[in-house]
Amino acid sequence: MAVFSVALMVVDARFALLKPLRSQMSLVLMQSYWVVDLPSRLYQGVASQFGSRTELIAENEKLKTETLLLQGRLQKLAALTEQNVRLRELLNSSALVNEKVEVAELIGMDPNPFTHRIIINKGERDGVVLGQPVLDARGLMGQVVELMPYTSRVLLLTDSTHSIPVQVNRNGLRAIASGTGNPERLELRHVADTADIKEGDLLVSSGLGQRFPAGYPVATVKEVIHDSGQPFAIVRAVPTAALNRSRYLLLVFSDGRSPEERAADAAKAQENIERGADPATTAPANPVPHAAPAAAPAVAAPAVVAPAAAKPAAKPASKPATAPATKPPAKPASNKPPVTAPAAGTRERIDG
Amino acid sequence: MVNLAPSRNGWVVWFTFLLGLLLSVSPLPQFMEIFRPLWLALLLTFWTLALPHKVGMTTAWVLGLMEDVLYGTLLGQNALILSLITFLVMSLQQRLRMYPMWQQCLILLVIFGLAQLAQLWLSALTGNRQPTLALLLPALVSVLLWPWVSYGMRGLSKRLKIN
Questions:
Q1: CB A219 within 8 A of CB A272
Q2: Residue of B nearest to A110 (CA)
Q3: Which residue among A54, A351, B9, B109 is least crowded, i.e. fewest CB within 10 A of its CB?
């Protein structure tokens, strides 16, 4: 029996032979996570049934203000995205990849207290892939490490076996944030004593490991200890995501292409643009009116909806002034309508 | 294992194991996670002592495999641990039954502690070593629960006349 167990373990560790067996078993067994989650779900259901009217009104009010604020910020974001795309074109660098996200729900925690893993209700059949990044509303949470048909296991950032390449948002300093096994702490390894990093710095994912998308907040630096006896500074950070509180998570679907394919596609797109440059010269007038209506609702919306948001309204108002200003120098880049088109598409989606 | 006696209410055994599986993944407050009792080990110990002709190594192994799938560990890890526990209990079975409760608890503490150490060793091999010996706590908690499990289950099996 022992020999058989050991053989099974070795086979499971080294080969993919037992995958089907595991996934078949998990199909049935993973229901138990759902079952043991039922009481808390029921409690929440009952609580929401009997939530008092005033509470609900207050919550509604709060959510409305929050939506308003977020929408105000989004309007600015649309203009910024546009600007960013334009600047990137000027620099001839590739456009930012747009990621699709899908909401997943947490259905269980790993019973082993020494690992930080959670179980979510989306699995292989929902298109989840191994290594897929998982976010919550405030930042990066972790990555998918095990796939089952309708569930998957997510390794959190703070697990002691997990590390993620990050970047200080303020100055772009790169580092690697490793989990410590403490749900409230990440540690930055091998940061030079003289490195420009201080308390309160936001760490964002750098995307260098090609696992996580770049630019998502990961943690904020909590303390930097310079110990002359140590070769490196000790940097501790707190994850921005609510790792042990979030119930709803976002699965990020970046496009499934490999970096090489992406580069090839980008090159092809570039070629197409160059080929289409001559006919496009007749349409430089096109992007300007196209940008104008985009900016117009940005101005109009806060003015109409939120008189209180006078400050955000003032900012978009100054935007159209800068937008046409950047347009003329962007004339050589007027051969980019095909590229701005997807950007405009995403903006519309964000607005909607 | 040949069943000569017609089994009665055998489903109860499996029902308790199912309950044990559920308990072993049920959410606990963060600070209590490290005290989570080894429910399956407790149940297996009880049924091996009560129905040695029915519950044995094979049952333990299959349950362990299920636990592996639930925990996402290597297939066979918990199977090995539970088989080890069952093996030790079966080899001490004659004596364990005669002992008073406190002595049973002591013996089980050793067995469970041993199993947890084997667990530590196996998870160290697969790369996630627990930093402390706190992993012995579940063994302790399980042993403290043993009298209750034992008496409660005995009452149940007497009432339902399981064999």
A1: no
A2: B71
A3: A54
Confidence (pTM): 0.70
Partner B contacted by A109 (CB < 8 A): yes
Contacts of B11 (CB under 8 A, 6+ apart): none
- Mutation site for A-interface testing, chosen from B14, B15, B18, B25 by largest number of A Cβ within 10 Å: B25
Q: Are A235 and A175 in contact (CB under 8 A)?
A: yes
Q: Say whether B66 and A29 touch across the interface (CB within 8 A).
A: yes
Closest by CA position to B84, among listed B50, B57, B110, B53: B57
CA distance A161 to chain B (A): 7
Q: For the segment B111-153, what is each residue's pLDDT rounded down to a tens digit?
A: 999 999 998 888 888 776 666 777 888 899 999 999 999 999 9
Which residues 218-237 in chain A show a CB within 8 A of chain B?
A: none
Find the CB nearest B21 among A8, A18, A32.
A32
Q: What string of DSSP letters covers A192-249?
A: -TT-S--TTPEEEE--TTSSSPTT-EEEEEEEEE--TTSSSEEEEEEESS-TTT--EE
Per-residue pLDDT 10s for chain A (352 aa) are 778 778 888 887 777 777 888 888 888 888 888 888 888 888 888 887 877 788 889 989 999 999 999 988 888 888 888 888 888 888 776 655 566 788 898 888 888 878 888 999 888 888 888 888 998 888 899 999 988 888 899 999 998 889 999 999 999 899 999 998 888 899 998 998 888 998 999 999 988 888 888 888 999 999 999 988 888 999 999 999 988 888 888 888 876 555 566 667 767 777 777 776 554 444 444 444 444 444 444 333 333 333 443 444 444 444 444 444 444 444 444 444 443 334 333 333 333 3
The reply to whether residue A35 touches residue B22, judged by beta carbons under 8 angstroms, is yes
| B36: CB partners within 8 A, 6+ apart | A111, A113, B24, B28, B138, B141
Can you give the pLDDT at residue A342? 40
CA nearest B114: which of B91, B148, B147?
Answer: B91
Distance CA A182, CA A156 (A): 11
Kindly determine whether residue B79 and residue A111, on different chains, have CB atoms separated by under 8 Å.
no
In terms of Cβ atoms closer than 10 Å to its own Cβ (0-12, 13-18, 19+), residue B38 is buried
- Please return the burial class of B131, using the count of CB atoms within 10 Å of its CB with bins 0-12, 13-18 and 19+: exposed
Give residue A218's pLDDT.
92
Tokens 């500074």 locate to A233
Is the four-CA dihedral B55, B61, B66, B72 of positive or negative sign?
positive
The answer to whether A294 touches A80, Cβ cutoff 8 Å, is: no
Query: Going by C-beta distance under 8 Å and a sequence separation of 6 or more, which residues neighbour residue B94?
Result: none
With an 8 Å Cβ cutoff, is A22 touching chain B?
yes
Q: How far apart are CA A8 and CA B75, in angstroms?
A: 6
Residue pairs spanning A and B at CB distance below 8 A: 93
